[in-house]
Amino acid sequence: MQRMKRGISTFPFLLIFSLIAGAVILTFFFGFGQDLLGLLGRYNSLSLAKNIDQQLAAFTFASHAHNVIPFGKKADVSVSCSNGESIISVDDQSLPTQKLILAPTVLRGNSLRAWTLSWDYPFKVENFYFLFDDDVSYFFQDTLQGKETYFKTTFKAIKNDISLLSSTLPHIKKIIVLFRDSNVNYFNYPHVLRVVKIDFRDKKILISTPSENKEFTLLGDPLAYAALFTQSIKDYECVQKEAIERLNTLTELHVLKTLMLRDLTEDSCLYDITYLDELKSQEQYPPLTYPDAAQNLEVYNKNLELANCPGIYLQ
Amino acid sequence: MKKGQIHFIETIFVLLILVIIIFIGIIITYFSLNRELSEKKETLTTTDAIILTDSVISMPEFTCGKSSNCIDTLKIFAFQQILQDPIKRKYYSTLFGKKRITLQIIYPEINAHFDRFCSLNDFHDGFSQECRYFLLYGGEETPDFSQKLESSAHVYIPSLDKRVLGILTIEVLQ
């Protein structure tokens, strides 16, 4: 081995080497720790999103149910809709799901409340899931009649913090629910997120935000509640389109079932697919004839059952 | 060899051991994380399958109506035709994942000789009672599965307006 020259000390080299090696090891560990923490954070957020999805799936069975979903930690949960899929986001992680889910704002806290409602049009099509907390309050128009009262009572049973428009509008996030035209511009008041006008007579819904408004055909009560729980017009439109896709699939399934019933039952049972055809996809959007078609199908199905023929769908 | 050189080699040796220990630590952490994730995946798959067992019965594609725990046989046959559409097939493959869903009639008892899947032909002139199974989703061949979940359900025959007893089976494919 070659000997070092006299007078040359190895100490500076050793010091430099130790410093560099120490820095490399420290950087490596710091990076590794950061990555691990980030990974665990993402893992926890995704687990929570999956947990919410599974808890919602667990009450698919119910046609009308509500529940509190605890998180076990503080989290920001939001829901959006894109390309026909709902997306549950927890912090910065997202989980796509085929359920029709809506939430009025970003939900912050240790838990959220969930409400599921079956959409029967007239046969069961899908469940809607609404996620909410107490951050947003709802203000209803004062004088209600018939169907509007029933609509408000059902809503109040789920979301307690609703008030009348005649009361003072406090400085909290709020959504205004109207059933008739109003001359008041509610966006002049502070913290008004949206104004939703539901017209049960003409079967129309108008959703207004400070920047835009859009009218939709009212396709049953669950879609009216969906308008109250949507975060944006875009999300509502996306969820409604997905719901109509599901309706089309289920209508097609019932057409096939009707044709099978026609083959299998006595000739005295007159099976007709006209009303189902009216419910199938139409060129125009929103589907204006759907409400009448659903109503006609319901009457037709009842008449079949009265004639002791198996119904196209069971009530 | 000089004293300084020995110190230098010693330091490098210590560092080398340190690096080896760190690597062993990283490998152990990686494998334990990997195992934990695999266990979590298995738990999630099981939970998904359990939830699916309940939700299949209430799915509008199969359910008799608002009455709970009942599957409509004609809807099963109609659903098989719906699955011929590639777009719809994709939707349901995302929904069900790698699973096979079948329904078996257990009462009234079907003769063991008729151990086959039912078709629409078995329902002309009533129910022939010459078949036992219905295929809701997946292939007719018995697959290799890692888990099998069963749940009882009523089987509704609309043309006869009659209910029989069955077992819904979900097999999670490997």
Domain count of chain B: the total is 1
Give the strand order, joined by hyphens, for the main sheet of chain B.
Answer: 1-4-5-2-3
Strand order of the largest sheet of chain A: 3-2-1-5-6-4
Helix and strand pattern of chain A: HEEEEEEEHEEEEEHHHH
Low-confidence stretches of chain A at least 5 residues in length (pLDDT < 50)?
Answer: none
Overview of the structural elements:
The complex is a heterodimer of chains A (315) and B (174). Chain A is an alpha/beta fold and 315 residues long. Chain A has a domain of 65 residues. Chain A has six helices and twelve strands. A six-stranded mixed β-sheet of chain A has the order 3-2-1-5-6-4, sandwiched between helices. In chain A, strand 7, helix 2 and strand 8 form a beta-alpha-beta unit. Chain A is elongated. The model of chain A has no long low-confidence stretch (mean pLDDT 88). Chain B has one domain. With 174 residues, chain B is an alpha+beta fold. The model of chain B has no long low-confidence stretch (mean pLDDT 87). In chain B, strand 4 and strand 5 form a beta hairpin. Chain B starts with a helix and ends with a strand. Chain B is rod-shaped and about 105 Å long. A five-stranded mixed β-sheet of chain B has the order 1-4-5-2-3. Chains A and B meet through helix 1, strand 6 and helix 4 of A and helix 1, helix 2 and helix 3 of B.
